[in-house]
Amino acid sequence: MTKPLEPWSAALVLVGAVAVTAASVVGVASPVLAGPVIGSTVAIVVGQALVFALVLGSRRSRPDLGLAATAAVGAVALGLAVTDLQLFARALDADRLDLFRPTAAAAPSPTVGSVALLAGHAAYVVAGVLAAVALARRPSVAVDDAPRRGVLVLLGAAGAAAAVVSPAYVSTDSVFLAPSVLGAPLSLALGYVLAALAVLVVVALAATSPRRDVTRGALVGVALSVLLVVVPRVPAAATAGDRIDVGPGTWLGLVGAALLLAAARPDRTAARPNRTDAAGERRRAAERPRRAPNARLVAGSLLLLSAAAAGAGSVLPVLAASGPIPRIAGLGAVAVSGVVVATVGVLLCLSEFAPSVRPASAPILAAHVALVAVVLQAVVLGVGVDGVRPGLGGWLLGLSVLAAVVAAPALAAAGGSDPVDSDAAERPLLVRAVAWTSAVLIVVGSLLPARSVDGRLGGWIGTWPWGWDVWGRVVFAAVVVTTAAILLRARRSRAVAAAVGTTVGAGGLALAAIVDGAAVGAAITGVGAIVSALLSGLLTRTDE
């Protein structure tokens, strides 16, 4: 008989709450100019107590709610645990003003509080995994016609994710620099990106869940996780002096968490008195809450939005200045990519084609983001020149990336609603070898320089901090590896579609780089695309 996981999950939540609280009390580094701020410590203690009270209080009365909240907190904690590693690598660059104020006299070193902080977040991660497994084991229920408040959920998720990756502070201090996430050290940048992705994935899965308590619990868990990150920053910045102030990420987090909590509030329509007259029946019909939104339609609509924004951004000025602006490479590839993504979005909105197209949409969308990121990197470099500012096209390209990021978890949720792969089988050794060869070639090509302009190589993983273009290719490489692992276990139609999507995405990236001046990375990616095309044919032949 399977042992229950709920008690272990709740116990680990308690361990995580105590460990994180202890770290906020004793401090995480020494020597420092100032230790933990009292207001920040109080905020952390109250927040950790709320998390544990929610999990403990819902164990018997609303178990789905408590498990979903624990899983959400654990998902976000994974990214936070990665950011904790910066305390051990170089605490001076950790940007944890709520835990310590660095001094110019000596570089701070991690203390036992750093170990407690990392252990606490690790305990939350394990608790979240156990809660997710326990939630999956619980018996399924009928679809619950609970209000999902889609606008609040979408805006709250976007605000919460943007809060994690936006600057936490605005600083002119010579010691506390507070760089942007993309310019931060590797562990900070990677951790906050993982946390933002966790927010989007959890919210998407919650919004499409048929269980009302799962939806509410996941939204509350994400909101509490974001509040635990951003609320301690406010008193920390208030006591830091005139040269340090709260950044936009903190305000976005507060707004996003408030919207998620508003979306998770209980439905009161069921408690209203019954009406027996005809007018009352019509009123009740108008008040009847709607079902969860269809993830497939949400994903398709977001892909259409991303494509439209990319297409418009590619023909409008991406930079604005009083003088001449040099030609920005990659705009033509973005326009073509927008047409491809729009086609995929339309097919996703059609129920007859969606199950066959959805496996191909992930690598195509990731390649689209990588192509747009090349232009956005040029925008970032351009605005560093005096008198140059982003044009309307640049803002639209940013909107295109945002819509694509939000569409990614909706695509994942749509995959869970597809028919079960009853004929899926283990692939032959030859097919597996070709699939992983294609994936490895594309990954290696994505991580190496893809462009060469006037004899100068573009960004690659060996140059830090990574630019938008490198981050885009890294995301594409991760999607390709995930797609390869999935297609080897999927049935024939989906496996072929995934291979074709990888071919289109990798081929598009390689061709775009060749037009602008290809480097070794583009050539390797192109070879990987050819191998992926061969894989699609091989999958068709071996499964006949």
UniProtKB/TrEMBL annotation:
Region (Disordered): 270-291
Keyword field: Membrane, Transmembrane, Transmembrane helix
Entry's transmembrane regions: 37-56, 68-92, 112-137, 149-170, 182-205, 217-234, 246-264, 297-322, 328-350, 362-383, 395-417, 429-450, 470-488, 495-514, 520-539
Biased composition (Basic and acidic residues): 270-290
Name this protein carries in UniProt: Uncharacterized protein
